[in-house]
Amino acid sequence: KDSANFEYICVQTLDGVLFVFEHERQSMVKSLPDTYLPGPICYLSRSDAIATVSSNHHLECYKYQTLAISSGVDHGMSVNKNARRKGLDVDSSLSVSQPSKQVLPEWSFNLGECALGIQTTQRMKNTGQTIVVLGERNLFCLHDNGQLIFMSKFEYNPSTFIVYNSEVNNNVSQSDPSNIGVRYIIGTHSHTLFIAQDAHIRWAAYVDFVPVQIEVCTIQDIRGMICTLSETGLLQCCYLGTDAVSTSIPSIMPSTIINVQDAEEQLAKLNKQIKQAMNDPTLVVKRKANAQVIIQIDDTNQYSTTDDTRFQRSDIDSTVPLLPLNLRVKCNEAIQNVLLTVHVHSPLCAQPNEIRMGHIGGIAAIGTATVAFWMRDDYTPWNLEATFTVSYNTLSDNTCHTIQKTYKLPLKLVARSFQQPPSAATAGQCKITLGANKPVVDLNTVFPELSSGEYNQQQGLTTRFYGSDEYVSILASSKS
Questions:
Q1: Which domains does the chain have, with CATH numbers?
Q2: Residue 404 forms beta bridges with which residues?
Q3: Could you read off the pLDDT of 184-234 as tens digits, one per residue?
Q4: 0.90 exceeded by the pTM?
Q5: Integer Cα distance of 131 and 143 in angstroms
């Protein structure tokens, strides 16, 4: 804000509070309603007002005199500051004469989105100021009384903008419509500068980076130089080229008049030819079969223990069994980029969990691999399913396909059986009884990997998970 004898500077803090300084003296402090973060701000000299965007995405205009009256700040604050510099005790109540009052805006306009920038200009001479607001997806142009002039919707992400040639617009007359309007430059995140007038794009050019600030200046008597600043601090001075780099709109061909009767006759003729061709016995339609990939899993049932198959925790000395599975991938045609991935639930692990088989078909008709499974941690497993996923590309259409197959790992991989007397098996803290109206099933059939040749129906099965101290006993009643 400029006047004949004074210059005012308005600063907005991170919490949205306005500080107005007159030279070195703080003359006003005001917290605007619904403003919690700093937003774009500009000064309207014609109406002596401040326009800013609040946190609820509203463009609001406040009279400077209204803000000064409602702030209640004593203008003798600089005297108190001088006293503090000299080490004198000053009453804090002298700085503010009365608490700040809530102020209402002169007018408000709902933008509906965050504002990236706000500037003022004049569309023509001897007219009111025009407010231009750059949003995330739209550009708004309003009169200084809050009335919308036009709105432009973007199909790109803007980064910054500048309104230029305002002094030229002030000198033109209303008889020249080519010079009437708001001229501005918009920088985008796609390294593009759009030069526009009102809601129409007049030119476009590429830049080397995403501009965060744009200025139009005169350098060495060369007018129209465009200075852009990047987010890394790179300053570039450039000018527009001779060829526009905007996407050209294809010319619309003049529409021809279609005769509906001729079109129906032609359609009936084509349908008759298709029907005759389909009924021709000599015509053989050969359809290409899709690739059929099959995953085969062979359980070796050969458990082994090594020093590598131990729990990750060092304070537990327990060796767990390891079960290898042989995998085979078959296909009825050639496929390429074959990738086999294995997924199991913790605490189980698979090694390796990713196998690249490359090309399958021709000489290498089958892809083979061996995957080992064991318990890595001393947690109680909750799911014994292993998922095998094969992704591949077909040579015919070169598209990616996937196929999955699940396999349930045996209980013997995570638990072992014990022999206990019937009294110890029935002395558990928690008991669960399942009743049925069918004959009792032999436990050897239900849990073949935990049963042994010395199985007794009265004794039941007792098992314990690796890394756990709890025993689980399963008893089958002699009655149905």
A1: 8-238 (2.130.10.10), 293-413 (2.60.40), 414-480 (no CATH)
A2: 389
A3: 999 999 989 999 988 888 888 888 899 999 999 888 888 888 999 999 899
A4: no
A5: 6
